[in-house]
Amino acid sequence: MSKTILITGGAGFIGSHVVRLFVNKYPDYTIVNLDKLTYAGNLENLRDIENSENYIFEKGDIVDEGYIKSLFTKYAFDGVIHLAAESHVDRSITNPMEFIMTNVVGTVNLLNAAKNAWKGNEEGKLFYHVSTDEVYGSLGDTGLFLETTPYDPQSPYSSSKASSDHFVRAYGNTYGMPFVISNCSNNYGPNQFPEKLLPLFINNIRNGKALPVYGDGKFTRDWLYVVDHAIAIDKIYHDGKNGETYNIGGFNEWTNIDLIKVLCKQMDIALGNEAGTAEGLITYVKDRPGHDKRYAIDANKLKNEMGWEPSLQFEEGLAKTIAWYLANEEWMDNITSGDYQNYYKEQYS
Ligand code: NAD
Ligand code: DAU
Fold first, then answer.
1. Catalytic residue among 55, 128, 136, 157
2. Is the residue at 236 inside a domain?
3. Residues 6+ apart with CB under 8 A from 226
4. Is residue 298's pLDDT more than 90?
5. What is the rounded distance in angstroms from the CA atom of residue 158 to the CA atom of residue 154?
6. Residue 294 Cβ contacting ligand 2 at under 6 Å
7. Helices 107-118/65-75 angle, 10° precision
8. 3-state DSSP helix/strand/coil % of the chain, to nearest 5
9. How far is residue 233's CA from residue 80's CA, in Å, rounded to a whole number?
10. Taking a C-beta distance cutoff of 8 angstroms, is the pair 178, 122 a contact?
11. Does the beta carbon of 90 lie inside 6 Å of ligand 1?
């Protein structure tokens, strides 16, 4: 059945993989990618599908209420998959207001536009809100985040995402907005902006630069290959139940320092360097303020209800990721010139 779907943030890291999957898998759908093209948005991520007949790009800001309203009038969307966000925890510590505007106000603008456009005609419509496991706060040494874990966000980023999750649920409860929410763990893979751990470290190793490990490096994250996240989003969009939340994770926990050591080994091999070269770049630096100790997702609800599981083992996913960044040095060089240098100096000097 043909549908017109709005995907927000489709020029970013995860969004670009979701757009690609939907454009290629559903030729009968029209996919409208709305993106402001902030520092994190990059149309280079979508070169392979940009001329597809079922793909339209719209440059715009989800915070702009009038513009969002006009977009819903123009396209009569059947669904929204909302990924647009300010997504980097360190930037949220420096500038929380950007996160409140985009992640909270922008989300509420989209909800209002969808509510008004779909009023009395909600059947077959869906607002899919893509969120993060960080809304649950930080775990101790044991335990996993379940869909029922109480919210306890600890950073300005996770607080803004938690707030947006609450608004989505409130619109479901108050106005009958059909919605689903998913909360995912750390993604890795091609096209990730090099402010996040893995692409930043890959780029630094490539350039022989220090690898800034925050604190003691013993913070734990659960890593998922980005294409597996996109596949989960596809399943949940089509088979998820109205009003439900789904956790998505890799069943794949690593302390940062262990993960960095595996990365270093693989990078030495990929670059043909002597073993130990990359590890020699590890430098412990001042910790991130309020740094969450451990995240780990229980993704069994999604696995049991929809048969979704990560398709890649971590070492395989990491090797594919490294190969992509080394084959796409121009992509990296283009985004690490200019403003990135200022960001890097402020964050790490
Ligand atoms: P990203 O920073 O790579 O991309 C965000 C995209 O949103 C960019 O293309 C940017 O231009 C666009 N954008 C930002 N502000 C906008 C605005 N006001 N209007 C329109 N577009 C705007 O982010 P990502 O890592 O791909 O994350 C995507 C979503 O997934 C976010 O909602 C994030 O919270 C969530 N998420 C990310 C991860 C992860 O590990 N990266 C894990 C779980 C959930
Ligand atoms: O858990 C999902 C979240 O994962 C997403 O919602 C966020 O959008 C995404 O950015 C990510 O958040 P993290 O803060 O976990 O990711 P980041 O890559 O910034 O950091 C991963 C870990 O590595 C974290 O413990 C901090 C540490 N780190 C990070 C950087 C950038 C370092 O030690 N040094 C660094 O330079």
1. 157
2. yes
3. 13, 14, 17, 187, 188, 189, 190, 191, 192
4. yes
5. 6
6. no
7. 40
8. 45, 15, 35
9. 12
10. yes
11. no
Look at residue 121 in the predicted model and tell me its pLDDT.
96
Give residue 77's domain range: 4-189+223-251+296-312
- Concerning whether 86 is annotated as a catalytic residue, the answer is no
Q: Give domain status of residue 323, yes or no.
A: no
pLDDT digits (tens, 9 = 90+) for 321-338: 999 999 999 999 999 988
80 within 8 A of 128, measured Cβ to Cβ: yes
Our count of domains for the chain comes to 1
- Residue at token pair 């419509």: 125
Which CATH number goes with the domain that contains 79? 3.40.50.720
- C-beta atoms surrounding 140 within 10 Å: 7
Tens digit of pLDDT for each residue in 65-106? 999 999 999 999 999 999 999 999 999 999 999 999 999 999
84 lines ligand 1 (CB under 6 A): yes
51: left (phi over 0), alpha (psi -120 to 50) or beta: alpha
Helices and strands: H and E segment counts in the chain:
13, 12
Best mutation site among 8, 13, 185, 200 for ligand 1 pocket (most ligand atoms within 8 Å of CB): 13
Task: Judge whether 302 lies within some domain.
Answer: yes
Pocket of ligand 1 contains residue 63 by CB under 6 Å: yes
**Is 274 one of the catalytic residues?**
no
216-236 per-position pLDDT tens digit = 999 999 999 999 999 999 999
Nearest CA to ligand 1 atom 41: 187
296, 144 Cβ separation under 8 angstroms: yes
pTM given for the model: 0.99
Give the DSSP H or E segment for 139.
none
Is 270 contained in some domain? no
Question: Which of 61, 90, 134, 165 is flagged as catalytic?
Answer: 134
Question: Which atom of ligand 2 lies at the shortest distance from residue 161's CA?
Answer: 6
Per-residue model confidence as pLDDT tens digits over 129-143? 999 999 999 999 999
Ligand 2 neighbourhood includes 165 CB (under 6 angstroms)? no
- Please answer whether residues 245 and 182 qualify as being in contact, where contact means their C-beta atoms are separated by less than 8 angstroms: yes
